[in-house]
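Aim 2, interim progress: modelling of the pyridoxal-5'-phosphate-bound target.
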Amino acid sequence: MKFATELIHGGNPIDPEHGSLSHPIYLSSTFAQHSMDLFGRYDYARSGNPTREALEEAVAGLEGGSTGLAFASGMAAIASTFLIFAPGDHLIVCEDVYGGTFRVLSTLFKGWGLEVSFVDATDPAAIAAALGPKTRAIYLETPSNPLIKITDLKGAVALAKENGLLTIIDNTFMTPYLQRPLEFGCDIVLHSGTKFLNGHSDVICGFAVTADAELGRRLRFVQNAFGAVLGPQDCWLVLRGLKTLKVRMEESQTSARRIVAWLGEQKAVAKVYYPGLPEHPGYQIHQSQASGPGAVLSFELVDYQTTKRLLEGVKLAAFAVSLGGVESILSYPAKMSHAAMPAAEREARGIKDTLVRLSVGLEDAEDLIADMQRILG
Ligand SMILES: *Cc1c(COP(=O)(O)O)cnc(C)c1O
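Predicted structure of the complex, ligand included:
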């Protein structure tokens, strides 16, 4: 099946009992058993629920994985994944990793004994230099947040395989429609499904997908033991949101390209970060591993006053945290996604106080441009 067909029919078979096209929502915490010797497929809903399973299979299928697991948030998926490691293990993590991932690693997991080196993952030599005897995994985001840096997945996977490491990638920005890291040999794909996968700004959820079934079993053990599962009603909303993933991504991406072209001509805009720009240093690599630049871009304004006027003055794009919804969202990384990062650390990583990030939704691109033009004029 091609991607669009898989979105509609994968993991979401027509209900064999009554023929409902929409997957039933099983609001049950437990399932009655008929035999002392053989329990049925479901016993307790933390361990498994038919609605969650339909969603898990759908997301696994889209990423080309064998196992998919749905969690209560992107952070729950990410933190649960870190629990497959043991105290004393060492991870190499891209330095402009999502702020919440940085926070959980530098506080809770640091206290627990997980060692982490944050490196500029766009530089293969920097990844190699961080390798140590206890290194167990490389953790990446490409494009990264909010500076839209591109990491060579095939290069990272080759290095990981040579050294017996897992490669873990947060694929939230691209979605499997544009980038399928398991095809390049990555081991675990993570998502904040809150963003493009659900796409309607009405659910907090996360996913982990593995290619290898044994690794999938290890993660499933954590999912059940730690218990940060996604509830069946939210699972149903995501099943519905997923069906339009392709059309949403295509439309938002087309608008993002137009907006990037417009931003490039504005005097008030100092710099635009978007992997669809041929002058982007990661352009070639991105082209080789993803089928499009996506719908998230960042840009720097000429000064702080202009930045403030834009963020407080736009009417169409919401000034808010998050991305990947049908509504465009303009966010301010220094005080939002990266607020958990100390100011010095943030500056060192190039996240200036004139940087804004735009997630392009489904409004008409001309309206979005006119709204910003009014302020940047
Ligand atoms: C939002 C986000 C997360 C965290 O997901 P939640 O669903 O908010 O817990 C992780 N990674 C990236 C890249 C994100 O954008």
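The longest strand covers residues 135-141. The chain has a mean pLDDT of 95.
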